[in-house]
């Protein structure tokens, strides 16, 4: 039976892991490759590395990070952060990434997802969606969640699947950094209205929140950052807790 | 030991190379006929689309070279599917080394299957030291139908052949290079065949 996945996310800036609260106030949390290897040993099912470095040599730093991760870690990982072209994706996949995550570039040019899935197969194309409730509407936000768009989150999720996304990484900006639980209602709605896996992100604070996102939220995978980085929840305990709740986990 | 990896237009070869490096092997990535023929072991990995991959292999004459190999050959992911007779992915005639058919998952659950699933009914030296119900990592939309050359089974939507063996040809649908310690052991088993 296919298991639900626990995915630590490592936000990387200038080669170091950072984690923001509501995407602001970055704090340093160590070397991404060392941290990734530690999570892998602890039973993480996958890793996500988001490079938030904003320099002209962007692709170079991305590819260097991918190489180091792929050399040292034997579980799958996704790389994201400023990926905007076939060339970027090709460079990351050739360096050893399993999947790439595309966000703002897909908003700017939705046809990019058609091109990428045709070129590389949909299994390696993750579309990241940052969503926030604005006046009762769930709207997609771009540029690390800072810029609102007029795209309805649910319609956008469906469009991204149709264009060839293999997986959706749904981050609730309303929940991110709050530790008050995932956006279960929205996650469940999207998960049951698309036919590709959903990674839920934003709001993890307790082990119970993970139970909720897999049951109420119908998520295929759950992503979290600071609760793992700052050792508030350990992955082995989390997975054994979830197994005890009847949620299928890799042992 | 000389291990050659078939160089063609399928992606994600670098992870396999790194996984072999971790086992102390420096593989040669090549489409050179003599190098492939003279290698002790041949790996045929990759991710990609079946018809593009087959067209490329035919255009380079690699289809015949692979069929004629006598040393242990290990197909991974699309490599497994290409060793079969036919794939529903763009109605593609494959290498036909293993008489089995590749089908698309019916839309009864999420497709692609992405994540960790168990392997059972393990039947080959490839799985020496691997426990039944071990977890390995899958990413795929097409699967190999159950058949006489099946050496392991996975269940997703339906039970299917997640590993095959016929003569010197071995193949798995999952990614041993991404399957943590279990995958590492399977790669080691292939190297030690």
From TrEMBL, chain B:
Active site: 77 (nucleophile), 175, 177
EC code: 4.3.2.10, 3.5.1.2
Keyword set, alphabetical order: Amino-acid biosynthesis, Cytoplasm, Glutamine amidotransferase, Glycosyltransferase, Histidine biosynthesis, Hydrolase, Lyase, Transferase
Family annotation (SUPFAM superfamilies): Class I glutamine amidotransferase-like
Pathway membership, UniProt: Amino-acid biosynthesis; L-histidine biosynthesis; L-histidine from 5-phospho-alpha-D-ribose 1-diphosphate: step 5/9
NCBIfam families, per database record: IMP_synth_hisH (TIGR01855)
Official protein name in the record: Imidazole glycerol phosphate synthase subunit HisH
UniProt organism field: Cytophaga hutchinsonii (strain ATCC 33406 / DSM 1761 / CIP 103989 / NBRC 15051 / NCIMB 9469 / D465)
Record lineage: Bacteria, Pseudomonadati, Bacteroidota, Cytophagia, Cytophagales
């Amino acid at each position: 039976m296919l298991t639900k996945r626990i995915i630590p996310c490592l936000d990387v800036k200038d080669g170091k892991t950072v984690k923001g609260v509501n995407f602001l106030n970055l704090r340093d949390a160590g070397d991404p490759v060392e941290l990734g290897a530690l999570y892998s040993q602890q039973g993480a099912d996958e890793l996500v590395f988001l490079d938030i470095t904003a320099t002209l040599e962007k692709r170079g730093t991305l590819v260097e990070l991918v190489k180091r991760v792929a050399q040292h870690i034997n579980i799958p990982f996704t790389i994201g952060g400023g990926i905007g072209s076939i060339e970027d994706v090709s460079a990351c996949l050739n360096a050893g990434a399993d999947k790439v995550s595309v966000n703002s570039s897909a908003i700017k040019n939705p046809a990019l997802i058609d091109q990428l899935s045709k070129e590389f197969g949909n299994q390696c194309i993750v579309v990241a969606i940052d969503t926030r409730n604005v006046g009762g509407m769930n709207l997609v936000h771009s540029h690390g969640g800072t810029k609102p768009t007029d795209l309805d989150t649910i319609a956008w999720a469906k469009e991204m699947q149709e264009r060839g996304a293999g997986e959706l990484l749904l981050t609730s900006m309303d929940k991110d950094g709050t530790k008050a639980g995932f956006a279960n209602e929205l996650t469940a709605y999207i998960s049951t209205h698309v036919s590709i896996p959903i990674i839920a992100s934003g709001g993890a604070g307790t082990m119970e929140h993970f139970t909720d996102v897999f049951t109420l939220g119908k998520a295929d995978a759950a992503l979290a950052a600071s609760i793992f980085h700052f050792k508030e929840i350990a992955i082995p305990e989390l997975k054994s807790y979830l197994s005890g709740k009847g949620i299928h986990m890799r042992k | 030991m000389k291990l050659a990896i078939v160089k063609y237009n399928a992606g994600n070869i670098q992870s396999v190379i790194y996984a072999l490096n971790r086992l102390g092997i420096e593989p040669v990535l090549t489409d050179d006929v003599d190098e492939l023929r003279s290698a002790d072991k041949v790996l045929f990995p990759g991710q990609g689309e079946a018809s593009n991959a087959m067209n490329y292999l035919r255009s380079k004459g690699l289809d015949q070279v692979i069929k004629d190999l006598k040393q242990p050959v290990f197909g991974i992911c699309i490599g497994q599917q290409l060793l079969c007779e036919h794939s529903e992915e763009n109605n593609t005639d494959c290498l036909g080394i293993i008489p089995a058919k590749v089908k698309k998952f019916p839309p009864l659950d999420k497709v692609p299957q992405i994540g960790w699933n168990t392997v059972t009914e393990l039947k080959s030296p490839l799985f020496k030291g691997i426990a039944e119900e071990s977890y390995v990592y899958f990413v795929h939309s097409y699967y190999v139908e159950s058949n006489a050359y099946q050496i392991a089974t996975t269940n997703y939507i339906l039970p299917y052949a997640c590993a095959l063996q016929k003569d010197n040809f071995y193949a798995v649908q999952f990614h041993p290079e991404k399957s943590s310690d279990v995958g590492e052991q399977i790669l080691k088993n292939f190297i030690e065949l």
